[in-house]
Amino acid sequence: MKRRTIIGVIAGAMATAGLAGAALAQEHVFKLHHLLAAQAPAQAQMLEPWARQVEENSGGQVKIEIYPAMTLGGTPPELVQQARDGVVDIVWTVNGYTPGLFPRTEVFELPSVYGGDIRAANLAMFDMFDQLKEEYTGLEVMWLHVHAGQAIMTVDELVRSPAETAGMKIRIPTRTGAWVIEALGASPLAMPVPEVPSALSKKVVDATLLPWEIIPPLKLFEQIDYFIEGENNERLGTTSFQVSMNKARWDSLPADIQKAFRDASGRDWWGQVGDIWRAGDDFGIKMATDNGKTHVLLNADEVAAFMDALAPVEQRWVDEVTSKGIDGAGLVQQAKGLIAANSQ
């Protein structure tokens, strides 16, 4: 009896110690909030691997809980403020959902700057971050990235020239994208991406500018007949994103935990994110064609006609940000040079 009692006490003590150790091991728990479904490539192939790497780097002291599809409340345009206010710890969001807050970063969205190379653009953003970081007040940026670019997806009209977009209603999430649509003689309608399928099915919009990556999670092959881009993945600009932490939460972390995040979010990771989005884009367009939809590749002359029509967008952006004391022309030159250098 005495022996069994001693064994029981020891076992209980070990269990208690184990629970205490587990609690101690995960002493830093973070809520990561974003707008897409859990099965979207953005979570499954980007956010989850990154979170697990941070946890591993921390030796088990960090736990990152991912909350997809706005499950913690609010709407996608509120994500930046949720992070700034500390309602959540970390967000992944589209910069353009909060127009005017990140004007310097917008330079990478311009059709004349973004050349279709996601990895090169992401690496250029990393290399240029010192010129961008002042606009991320209240946030600690983990990384920035772009998507594969604004391809044209039309419900039922084949478009091969700027003239054929005139009068169309086209969805876009960013103000730079709106300027692209206006330059094409069409009407821009801004809305978060989860609202796109309903808008297409109800003919609220005739088309949308998006990358192929979003085709599977939104099942866009159910509403879209034509998926249009230029040869060599040439698109009409792109969209910028961020993964950022509440600044006060970041500042409260010990150095070793900050290092766990930084080591998982370095320059190599920014480039790898580009590879992840390129693979997701390739998978998305294959799903569309497998479902009988048409993938249209514009030839060089057709692409040139679009780019000629969009030439004023760059100067419009430069003039707009310059009026706010930002060296728009200098940012354009720097971004173009860094993308070219990272494309080699």
Main CATH class of the largest domain: Alpha Beta
CATH architecture of the largest domain: 3-Layer(aba) Sandwich
Strand arrangement within the widest β-sheet reads 7-6-8-5-9-11
Strand content: 15-25%
Q: Would you mind describing this structure in some detail?
A:
With 344 residues, the chain is of the alpha/beta class. It has two domains: 27-147 and 239-280, Bacterial extracellular solute-binding protein, family 7 (D-Maltodextrin-Binding Protein, domain 2); 151-237 and 292-339, 3-Layer(aba) Sandwich (D-Maltodextrin-Binding Protein, domain 2). Helices cover 46% and strands 17% of the residues. α2 links the parallel β1 and β2 (62-67). α4 crosses α13. The chain is globular, with a radius of gyration of 23 Å.
Compact overview of the structure:
It contains 13 helices and eleven strands. The protein has 344 residues and is an alpha/beta fold.
Please give the structural blueprint:
Elements: H1 2-25, E1 28-33, H2 41-57, E2 62-67, H3 79-85, E3 90-94, H4 118-127, H5 129-132, E4 139-146, E5 151-154, E6 169-172, H6 175-183, E7 187-190, H7 196-201, E8 207-210, H8 215-218, E9 226-230, E10 240-246, H9 247-251, H10 255-264, H11 267-290, E11 294-298, H12 300-322, H13 328-342
Parallel strand pairs: 1-2, 1-3, 6-7, 6-8, 9-11
Antiparallel strand pairs: 3-10, 4-10, 5-8, 5-9
Helix pairs in contact: 2-10, 2-11, 4-11, 4-13, 6-12
